[in-house]
């Protein structure tokens, strides 16, 4: 356990040093894992003193969370959370699928998922980081599907389970293949057909039953 030195109060933080520390931290956590990376290595790579490092982030856990928060702030697109067109559920769902798929296949997103799988990461820290990105998408999609169910456009008893199903259909096994290095890029020309089939399957499962059946 690394003890943090006493921090001086009142001095403004240097934005350039702050960004250098975050960049160095992301690289080292990805290379070494949470448990193996240490604050001295981060300081050395960022070109700052260890005292400066602690004055910006306090401890390694806070630095790890800050690095992932910055990752989500930078790469999670606002368009994912855009309200759906109430008059075109299928089109809105397909648009969401494209944006979500594009985000999930970014090299930066794949690197972020690897960070969450680093050895020695405490369970409570995983939950905190999960809340920064994936949980926000889950919550938005759960609320959105629930609203369409209330309007009669979808037939579902559990909006959260439906959201899980939809995200799973969009991901398929592509993201696992990218994460494990089986694939190095997204296959061209196949994505649109795959997403259309995923949305079609979801709609067949959750569309309201015709009257009389």
Short description:
By secondary structure, this protein is mainly α. Helices cover 65% and strands 0% of the residues. It folds into two domains: 15-72, Arc Repressor Mutant, subunit A, CATH 1.10.10.60; 77-206, Orthogonal Bundle (Tetracycline Repressor, domain 2), CATH 1.10.357.10.
How much β-strand is present in the residues? under 5%
CATH topology of the largest domain: Tetracycline Repressor, domain 2
Give the low-confidence spans: 3-10
Q: What is the second-level CATH architecture of the largest domain?
A: Orthogonal Bundle
Radius of gyration from the alpha-carbon trace, in angstroms: 21 Å
Described by the principal axes of the CA atoms, the overall outline is elongated
What does it look like?
- The chain is mainly α and 213 residues long.
- It has two domains: 15-72, Arc Repressor Mutant, subunit A, CATH 1.10.10.60; 77-206, Tetracycline Repressor, domain 2, CATH 1.10.357.10.
- Helix content is 65%, strand content 0%.
- The protein contains eleven helices and no strands.
Descriptors for this entry?
single chain, 213 residues, mainly alpha, Arc Repressor Mutant, subunit A, Tetracycline Repressor, domain 2, 2 domains, 65% helix, disordered N terminus
Chain-wise SSE layout:
Blueprint: H1 15-32, H2 39-46, H3 50-57, H4 60-75, H5 89-104, H6 107-116, H7 123-132, H8 134-150, H9 159-171, H10 174-179, H11 191-206
Helix pairs in contact: 1-2, 1-4, 2-3, 4-7, 5-11, 8-9, 9-11
